[in-house]
Amino acid sequence: MLRFDRIELKDLEGIQASTGSVIANCMLHHQPQMSCESLALLRIFLGNVRKLSPKLVVLVKDELLSNTTKSSPTPFVEFFCEAMHHFSSMFDAMACSFYGEYKIGLRSVEKEILGPRVIDYVSQFPFRSSSMEGFKLSPSSACNVSQAKYLLGLFNRGFSVQHDNGRLALCWKSRPLIGVSIWVPT
Hints:
Number of strands: 6
Distance between the termini: 24 Å
Number of helices: 6
Oligomer: single chain
Low-confidence stretches: none
Strand content: 15-25%
Largest sheet: 6 strands, mixed
Structural class: alpha+beta
Mean pLDDT: 75
Shape: globular
């Protein structure tokens, strides 16, 4: 398994076609090291994935990235407010999910994961958009959407699924937190 956030150019050269079907899974979460160099590696990685002729590429990313990497630059104040609402929703969702004896776990998640992510997002403004050049968005099937809604309904405490423009998003009180989309080579 290769992670583009920890990958070196020499690792990319070792990617070779296999005899079976290839499915790539890319989890894009903003990292403090997500520099121009990292984005260049991501483009090279996706280029090498394209050479493998995958049946599909599954892309998972923070919805904050989707909301702030539009074609025109977002002013910092607008970005900051969007980030504040995004992370406020994340903290609220976590607080409702961790209850009783699990509250200690919530503090650990806040301190070790969410806290540093808030700092990283704000300190790395403005973001550079990642490119899915050479791939086209494939719509989610009705079965995928139904299954996601069914599974979420089993544990629903304010969570919902949003389906639009070919992607599924996990939402907290109608605010998208994490999105999943499926891409196929063009």
